[in-house]
Design goal:
The chain is mainly α. The protein has four helices and no strands.
């Protein structure tokens, strides 16, 4: 269960610091204007997905033991891990919204959050 939290945090950390592989094919074919628009759409969608996931994790954590959210071998409840993951999803969704706002504020010039490549 702890490994789930570590891996999820590692994925979010990689996304924040640009450690994931990215392909800049849209910008090569359609230009920077389309890329800026797709960045905004993806950030809105990502924030929405993170919010929905955080809500789902909290709802699952609230159900707790009656729903069988416990490990079979050591009887470790899942609820604390659900809440930690929900908080992480919430923070990552907020980061995406902050990147969206910064991107809109810097629309005519270079976006500080834009992938360089």
């Amino acid at each position: 269960m702890s490994l789930t939290v570590v891996v999820a945090a590692g994925v979010a950390y990689g996304a924040v610091h640009g450690a994931h592989i990215s392909v800049h094919i849209i910008g090569n074919f359609f230009g920077r204007g389309v890329t800026r628009l797709t960045d905004a759409i993806v950030r809105i969608a990502g924030a929405g997905i993170c919010g929905f996931a955080a809500w789902g994790l909290v709802m699952k954590g609230l159900c707790g033991l009656p729903c069988g959210a416990i490990t079979q071998n050591l009887n470790v409840p899942h609820a604390p891990f659900y809440y930690i993951l929900a908080a992480a999803m919430s923070f990552f969704g907020a980061l995406l919204l902050a990147q969206l706002i910064v991107g809109i504020a810097h629309w005519p010039v270079e976006d500080p959050n834009e992938e360089q490549g």
